[in-house]
Each structure stands twice: as structure tokens, then as C-alpha cells.
Write a structure and sequence with these properties.
386 residues; alpha/beta; Spore Coat Polysaccharide Biosynthesis Protein SpsA, Chain A; 2 domains; 7-stranded mixed sheet
Length: 386
Amino acid sequence: MTVKMEMNLDTQVRDAQELARIQVQSGLSIIIPTYREAENIPLILQRIDKLRQEQNLTLEVLFMDDDSRDGSVEAVERAGFDWARIVVRTSDRGLSQAVIDGFTRAQYPVLICVDCDLSHPVEAIPQMVLALATGQQFVLGSRYVSGGSTDDDWGIFRYINSRVATLLARPLTQVRDPMSGFFALRREDFNTSDPLNPVGYKVALELIVKCHFDNVAEVPIHFSDRQHGESKLTLREQLKYIKHLRRLYIHKFANAMYFLQFLVVGASGVVVNLATLTLMLLAGFPNAACLAGGIATSVVSNFLLNRRFTFSYAREGNIWKQFIGFVSVSSLGMAVNYAVALGVLKSSVGAMPLGLHLSALVGIASGMIFNYIGNRYVIFRKTHIR
């Protein structure tokens, strides 16, 4: 029984290796996003050429350059490889956009993304293709699985930054290193993705979510520090990552995220209400005017914040019509709040300790859910939902 099982495993491995060999011979498209990497271009081309000859690979290399003007074009031309070319991008610049643009231009069935700073070992590409051949949809070169590593001089802050970014992405994917910029996938899977709109530099995370990848493999790699040039990881890029995460959370957990943002905006409205009330009271306005001013200001702030953040997809709509609708729904929500609270108060709950408070909380929750549904699907509705 053991011998038969081992033979079956050997057959599966050989079949996977054969399929990987077929995929390699069918061709690989290696996409390398660049910005001011002229010194590294000849070095990475030498390593890819060595791999190409050793593994008898059919491939193309596309440098997607964001208008560096540092000699990158000349560096590719001087290398003299007919399988390598550079595309200079002058609009919609950015690392993630460059990768997506490169994938759409690629001619071969297997797509691979590699950084140009020599931090990614291109020698791991055959192993990544083998993982695709065994049925994986997406393959990452990973620092954080068994066998993976980073250079010893990684500082503690860089390590913490990477780990925190990974932790923030955990609800979106369970892979160990979703921050990796070294990955492979099939063109046919890339072509079935939801609309892509990445922000910043974490395009792998975008693809995992938007392509709905369930089978993601991680191949251990050693991540080296760049040899030439400067790191592009700035505070601005890290803030873009937060913006990118928000987009992906909304994409994957749409209603839950919209409702959470709606609650946060509602909480901010309470602060605005109380702040306005206090300022008007200090200014000598009568109590009734202070209450009215606080409510009016919070309604306006809630509307603007929901339009700007919670339901940002509806910002192109007529603002006045939306405001009138928002006020109407909020008024109905208050009526629902009051009616539900009264109904609960007249039930057995009203006789319980703190029955009035419990009734009020149920009413508030009902009114809030009513407001959310009204705003989400009526006032700030999506005309087209993909």
C-alpha cells in the first residue's frame, strides 16, 4: 500500500513537472515596473538571461517605466536582448498601474511580476511556475514562510512596518506575505478579474482580492536589500496603502463596510452636535436654539461625510437632491426610532429594570438601520453594480 501511494505521488510530481515544462515552453511574460532604476536594469537582465539559458525558457521582459529619464531606455537598448523591451509611461503613473498595464500588454500565458531592485531572486521563477502547474491560482515569493528570509540588516522599524501592513491585510487573505511584489499567475485568470483600481504599490493584494483567488501558494525566497538606487517606500506610499486597503475592504465586504462607515460618521455627528450646542450656549443663545443648531449642524456634517466617504461612489450625483433626500430619510428614521421605542416600551421589556433605556436603544438601532438602508439603496444608490 505504501509503495503504491509513493508511486502515485511520484506520478503526480512528474505530471506537474511536465505541465510546468509545457507552460515554460509556451512562454513567460516577466513584468518589471521601474522608476529610476537604470543601474539595476543590466544586472537583472543578466540574471534573467542566465536563467533563460539554463532552463531553456521562452520569455519576454517588459520594463514598465514611469518616465524616469535617467538612462533606463538606453540601458535596455544597450543590453541587446531581443526578448527585452521598455515601455515609457507618461500618464497614470504608479507602480501598481505599471504592473497592470504590463500584464495587459504581455503576450505569453504565464505572467510574472518582479521588482527591479534585485531584491527578488529570479532563480525562483521555475518553482513558482511549478506551483501554478499543480493547480495553484496565484503564487507569491514569500519572506515569511518556512525557508524564507530577509537580509540581516533589516532594521526593526522596517520589520514592524512590514508585519503591521500584513496584519491589516489579514481579513482580506490568509497568506503570510501579501505585501510581496514577486508573484506569478496565469493570463486567463488575470483576464477574469473584477475592475482593477489599485492605489500605491501592493498590486498582489489587489489581484488576490479582485480575481477571487482561493488557492494561493507561497514559495520561500530570500529577500535582499537593493544594491543601487533609492527605495520608493515613502510615508506617502504607506498612506496610499491605507487608502488601498479601504477600497479592498469595501470591495470584499461591501455592505458591512458601508454600514461601519455609516456608524462612524453617525458617531462624529454626535460630537459635532454637542460641540455646536456648547459653542452656541457659550455665545448666549437660548437653549431651544442651541438644540436646534446642534441638530442642524450634525445633519449637514453627516450628509457631507457620508457623501464624501461612506457612499463616495455617488459624489457625481446632484448634491441638493441628495441633501433633500438625506434629510427626508433622517426624518423618517427619527419617526421609526420613536415608534419602535414606544412599541418596545409597551411590551414586557418596558416592565424590566431600565426598560425605558432598553426601549430607547432598540428604537435608536431601528432608526439607524432604516437610515442606512434608505441612504444606501435610495439616496446614494449605485446606478450600476458589478
